[in-house]
Amino acid sequence: MTSDALLIFLAAILGGALRVGVPFIFVSLGECLTEKSGRINLGLEGVLVLSAVAAFGGSYLTGSPWVGVLLAAAAGASLALLHGLLCSLPRVNDVATGIALMLFGSGLAFYLGKPLIQPSAPQLPPIPLGALVTTQEASPVLYAALQINPLLPVGLVIAVLLTLGFARTRIGLLVRLAGDSANATKALGYSVNGIRIASTVAGGAIAGLGGAALTLFYPGSWNEGISSGQGLMAVALVIFARWSPGRCVIASAVFGGASSIGPALQAIGVQWGYHLFNAVPYVLTLGLMLASSKSVAASGAPGELSMVRS
Fold first, then answer.
1. Cis peptide before 219 (omega within 30 of 0)
2. CATH of 3-122+150-292, one of 1.10.3470, 3.40.50, 1.10.760, 1.10.287
3. CA gyration radius for the chain?
4. Domain extent listing, the chain
5. CA distances (Å), 307 to each of 38, 43, 102, in order?
6. Is CB count within 10 Å lower at the N or C end of the chain?
7. What is the pLDDT of residues 230-287, one digit of tens each?
8. Which one, of 20, 19, 9, lies nearest residue 142 by Cα?
9. The pTM is what?
10. Using one digit for the tens of pLDDT, what is the confidence trace for 173-182?
11. Which residues lie across from 148 on neighbouring strands?
12. Contact call for residues 208 and 231 (beta carbons, < 8 A)
């Protein structure tokens, strides 16, 4: 591999980490908040797809991509609210409810999104960070790789706020308490269900921004396979990040870069076998789940999660 090809390859991986990693950031942060309260939401795939079509439809109908972003957050919060309310009922399993809502959210999105497959909608304007490093004529690949999704800074701010909130605020302490011990939360006079519903709704709204990133920036269109299972992969990502918002951001960049290996190989002229690397994120997800399966309970997981309770 020549030095120019290596530069192109690395720039393509960097671009993928910045573009593909953004939806992962929001979905993983949303799930991190939900799980910190002691509830798991496997319906995030439905949340992501429904919020993606809401964002695209809102941008298409109003002409403003930022209206689409708000609608995506609202759609994610609405489906998450339904999940939170159902899981608060007696003898209702979080995992089974999440799977049901994943199917419901995806089916509803496919139904509502059929008229939106062909049209185009106004997109979020990129932040031209590449202009600070190079010019489009000098290094077009690097210049394109550094066209930053304007939602990326929003995701980083949310990660910082969650980190500080869990560590230094009363609300964050209550969320962690509800996730670690329902009995202790009740003994202090707080509603466990209330805390978990609020956390689930807030997590759904955050995850909904990931749907907006899909349809309003990259790939910037609506189709029924747009999420590629990112909502489900986010659950493994949160486990890998040990329920830390900061590590969720790093893990999202890793997943984004891994998703870009195949296209990066195409960019340097590799035409055989590159498609096999498109499976890297799924293999990575499986590997993380297997590696974490024996150490989840001992790695700081919220004690009330149904996946770690004995």
1. yes
2. 1.10.3470
3. 20
4. 3-122+150-292
5. 10, 15, 18
6. C
7. 888 888 889 888 899 999 999 898 888 888 887 777 767 776 666 677 777 778 777 7
8. 9
9. 0.90
10. 999 999 999 9
11. 127
12. no
